Amino acid sequence: MSLVLDNSVAMLWLLPQSNPAGLALAQKVLDLLQDNGAQVPSLWHLEVANVMAKSLRLNKITQAQASTFVALLEALDIATDAETSLRALHDTLDLARRYHLSAYDAAYLELALRKGLPLATLDTQLLAAAEQAGVPVLI
Q1: Do the strands 3-5 and 38-40 form a parallel or antiparallel pair, or are they unpaired?
Q2: What whole-number distance in Å separates Cα of residue 93 and Cα of residue 105?
Q3: What angle do CA 43, 45, 49 make, to 5 degrees?
Q4: CB 70 within 8 A of CB 55
Q5: For a Cys staple, 112 with which of 52, 119, 134, 137, CB 3.0–4.6 Å?
Q6: 52: how many CB neighbours lie within 10 A of its CB?
């Protein structure tokens, strides 16, 4: 089963101390990704890089940890959606307005809706929007 992977879940593989309550879901998703793929909007890579850069700057992680994390991500079957930017000013913007989400979060919801995939997220606003929109969520 493929899924849409939100950055909030993936970042716990690098920074487990940042959300101990979400560790079970993060591990469940990581286990699923060992045998199945995930899809992400094209902005996902920038979100990952941003969290890593900030974590390095604040000495929350070492360069070795960052490198190990990048190797993990590259080993997983994570496909980048090519249509994210094409849908930003229409479908994604509409979802952002309807569910009071940032455009970034709405991109995950749009992808899950368009592909008919469940969403793995720890973001409470995105979770609520997905449930309202009828998108299955991993818990």
Answers
A1: parallel
A2: 10
A3: 120
A4: no
A5: 119
A6: 19
Strand segments, DSSP code E, in 1-123 are: 3-5, 38-40, 78-80, 119-120
Strand pairing report for 38-40 and 119-120: unpaired
Q: For 20-37, what is each residue's pLDDT tens digit? A: 999 999 999 999 998 899
pTM value > 0.85: yes
131, 137 contact by CB (below 8 A): yes
Give 46-88 pLDDT, tens digit per residue. Answer: 999 999 999 999 999 999 999 999 999 999 999 999 999 999 9
Q: Which two tokens stand for residue 107?
A: 């991109």
Residues with Cβ < 8 Å from 48, sequence gap 6 or more?
A: 7, 10, 11, 73
Q: Assign residue 74 a region: left if phi > 0, alpha if psi is -120 to 50, beta otherwise?
A: alpha
